């Protein structure tokens, strides 16, 4: 019988062949832009957008003084990008002599392959082997899967998130500390994971009659939860220590939304209200509001459906906690699709129907979604207001 890891790697390689073909198709048609000349090669095309910011961090680290505009507002700068991924890229560059774009893509693909392997093992804890394998197919061919092979931190974050969830489901709390630390310094996720851990502790305490929750596990689970919360604010504290401004990180993040709604303070859950005021008059309230409500309703239905419940409480705690975190702090625009990548455990819910027609349709729709996302968000068309 073919070993599980070989089946997963075959799926991963096939998916990367499809996605690489899509990216090369658009690269050939890419006009001159702020980052590349016309028709760039694959590696230049893979370092567009935030890839350039990761290049700046890898080569120059972070500014000790925040850049300001004439009105005294903090402008876009490297503090918006967490350090784990560019540190690894820089290390590989020094070790191998590879240029940034090649090293970054190699690291992203390597972590993506590792995530696919771990994701299968995670799904196999809650689903049958065949369903876990198809969930892995959906992860590999997902509409946002091109982000796993460009100069972005998503694949590295997905690897450590999957590992953290795998350890959580196995209740290996002590082993989670270094994993959560790296995860939280790769992409913003420490606070959301802390909420998921709090829900995990509450659930275990409420069900301790049928599932014992000994004192040592209570202490260990609470400890990793508090550690995750601390890691969730660690980058803010580091930015404060280096720049002298307590709001260095949040002000930097707000700089990216200033072109949409102007300057303001970070008030939890206000970004979505601001977004309704911005997008509504432009795209039409009759379109924006139903889309947002429809997504939230669909997400909730999936989470509490029989398919969702078969994933167990912890994967649903994470997905719900992370979405709540996005609702609290992120301004919705085209990059929101990328920010939804960490709820990929829900592919396990969608993977459960066994109909061949359903499964093939889902894969075809996912590939079509890749084409649509690369065209809308990654491909640069003049003054492009749809960043990935």
UniProtKB/TrEMBL annotation:
InterPro entries: PIG-V/Gpi18 (IPR007315). Keywords: Endoplasmic reticulum, Glycosyltransferase, GPI-anchor biosynthesis, Membrane, Transferase, Transmembrane, Transmembrane helix. One of its GO terms (molecular function) is GPI mannosyltransferase activity. GO terms for biological process: GPI anchor biosynthetic process. It comes from Glaciihabitans arcticus. The chain crosses the membrane at residues 6-27, 151-169, 175-199, 219-240, 287-307, 322-348, 360-380. Pathway: Glycolipid biosynthesis; glycosylphosphatidylinositol-anchor biosynthesis. Signal peptide: none annotated. This is Glycosyltransferase RgtA/B/C/D-like domain-containing protein. The keyword DNA damage does not apply. It is found in: Endoplasmic reticulum membrane. It is a multi-pass membrane protein. GO terms for cellular component: mannosyltransferase complex; membrane.
